[in-house]
Amino acid sequence: MSASRRGYEIGLVVLLCAAVGIVNIDMFGINYLLPTIRPALRLSNTQVGALISSFWVTYSISCYITGRLIDRTGRRKPILVTVLVGVGICSVLAGFAQSFSALLAARMLMGLLEGPMLPLVQSLVAIESAPERKGLNMGIVQTFGASLLGWLAAPIVLASLAAHYGWRAGFFVVIGPALLCAAVAAAVLREPSAIVAAASENRHQGGVLGLLRIRNVWLCWLLSALAMAYLAVGAAFIPLCAVQIRQMDSTTMGLLLSVLGLSSLILGIAIPALSDRFGRKPVAILANLVGMLCPIAMIGFDGAVPLLAVLMFFGWASAGASTLFFATVPAESVPLHLISTAIGLNISVATLLGGVVAPVAAGWLADARGVQAAVMVVAGCAGAMALLSLGLKETRPTGRVGDPEMALS
Asked: What is the CATH number of the domain that holds 78?
């Protein structure tokens, strides 16, 4: 690979990392602002739930629709620039909302706008990365910016702004970085000519029925739904288990949760990087077997809290492997003209089943059998992912993006 191409690859990863991080500030920022939004707009618990769930419903719909649009046109640059500008503007609209209905409409529109982000950025990374760095780059793009900005910086910044200037100020944070990122993308991002040509030649081919012929694709639908359930149910019920069952104080519980955030950041890069060297399939199987450790340790480990924290850090490995199922394996298993469609549909299914349905089902189980049962669901998701990963066709050693022979196997 030439120095100029290698430099473009690095710059692309940095740019897309920033784009994903900016979108994640808005995506999860409302969670940090709700303590001040709720009394200001006099929201009920039902309305709070509606603000969260409505976003994910429109987000999941948008993932597939826009993924298909991206593949039909082959044009990623103008769509990415438009999405970033739209996210910045829509965030400001949310900041001006005077009622629940106005804020709900803004959040639903935001879900539609942000749905294209992961299919866009991960398809670009899959196309532009050298094969030996594809897993690493996709892990960095999906994990680093989101964790650093959306999960570490955003709670501190937005809570401070809300305390000093009111909750509306928190929604105005995104527009500046979003517009700056859009300007940089417009200036430096290039459209892969091979992808435009493939889209033009195959604009009427493929779709959901075509994707169903590819074993890795429908397996990744199941794996991604389980991965989303692992993350969503774990984030909801592991803290409850720590407080209710293990009788931890809120400070200790918070520190343990920060360990999970750190694990997601580090293992979310390390595990995809290991898959570049050892293959997607074996790394996915091992990571998910290890991923059973965190929920099991939370329930059954009686040792010191520092050792529990170590077990939870490494035992949250299924979160680190999620990029493989969300994007890397699907991108390596389909022809060029279906990359964004495969990733978009994958994330759409995962969001609806794993992000919307699974937490409700786990909550019902917790009411019936205790919070430990919900935590065991997390372990069950990891075990099921390990088993399903046995069925994956390895894509790393011989697979190439757009290899028709591999894609139809």
From this structure: 1.20.1250.20
